[in-house]
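Dear support,

I submitted the protein below through the web form. The confirmation email said the job was done, but the results page showed an empty box. After a refresh the structure appeared. I'm attaching both so you can tell me whether what I see now is the final result or a partial one.
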Amino acid sequence: MHKEINLGIAPIGKFIFSHDAAMEQKKKIYHLMDNWKIKYNGIDEIIDDGMVRGDEDIDPVVNYLESKKIDAVFIPHCNFGTESAASMIAKRLSVPVLLWGPRDETPLPDGTRMRDSLCGMLATSKVLNKLDVIFTYIENSEIESPVFEKGFKKFIKAARVKKNVSSLKIGQIGTRIDFFWSTIIDESDLLNRFGIQILPFDMADFINSVNKRQKKHQNIYKVEVKELSKTIITRDNDYDENLMGSLALRDELISRAVENDLNAIAIKTFPSLQKGLKAVTGLGCALACDSGIPILSESDIHGAISSVMLESATDSGNPSFSADIVMRHPGDDNGILLWHGIAPLSQKDPDSSINLYPTWTFKDLPPINASFKLKDGTVTICRFDGDKGNYCLGIGEGNTIQGPYNREFYAWVKVNDWKGWEKKIIHGPYIHHFSAIFDKCSDVLIEACRYLPGIKADEFE
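What the results page shows now:
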């Protein structure tokens, strides 16, 4: 996943207000970017004072920032605003745009003012709207304020979501599970509309590669299985062989992701995978997720897109997990159960043990998933989905609550109004699969959708 954004900064000034006041604001902006370790490109190399002041600056600024391959542009109005230049720079760069200006100071004793930044932004916003330029606005505020920090960092994350979706490449291992019609997708439409590439891998070839890897590195895997056995409770001594297969599966998934520059992988998780590997396949996928690559079960391409968007929207360091919404809490009308998909072991509750049970849904298969309770906290839940060319990103947040024990990994989550959620999911283009992450980032996803034409943000709240 691309976690760094290359930001262009095009400060805007105007001749009729104080040059010194504008330059002081520009200096503060660059100082803050350095402190926050933001990768950015100013325009000092092509304009003497690094400040856009007229239409003659449009071509040099656009050409320069395009040469730097920026992912987003920040257009701070440092003392007023040249709306024609600011708007045309934004229009021609065709990247996410951030508009902000410092809160103006008290007028001087003689009634004059050093800046009219608010006025300049009001003019520029009118022209941006006239030119159909999508932009993010931080309310008129001091650069040192929490308002600016929150707005700026939300914009950077939203731009990162846009960048990752626009360069998304998903590996698909095996075909769609035959009786899962709900995961039918339009691969051609995803490519044409959003540039999302899907790279298929043959299941038989994949299984053969995993088995070869297990045989080649069995001595290494035996040592690692001994370490795993200290934290995993098994019901059968023969599981050691299953665990070795899980480790080989993990390494094959990571290897294919790295070699093919994949952002995520969707895999046909049963039954051929278990029969061909005789491994705890869900555990192998979970371990791969903890390496930084989302793995989605049941051939769920739309789920893979959801997970990439979630992980792009957060700086929490938590990987996403994928789960089914399967039932309501027996004692709380707004509680629901997230269960089953693939969850990294790093997201386990510290007090929960990891168990391996034979699956109770497919009795002829070896254990598929590890069983444990997820940790507690706030979760953001989302689902990218669509039919017939209409795509949405369903978005909501909730908090974990206590509930009955379940086999496989699970979390009981309370939302604000489950009845409202349920109606949206039933009538939307959604299925029961959802991606989730331990963080509050729904606001980032909503903002990111503004920069992704064809994807409508749909708040479950």
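Response: this is the final, complete result; the empty box was a page-load delay. DSSP finds 14 helices and 19 strands in the chain.
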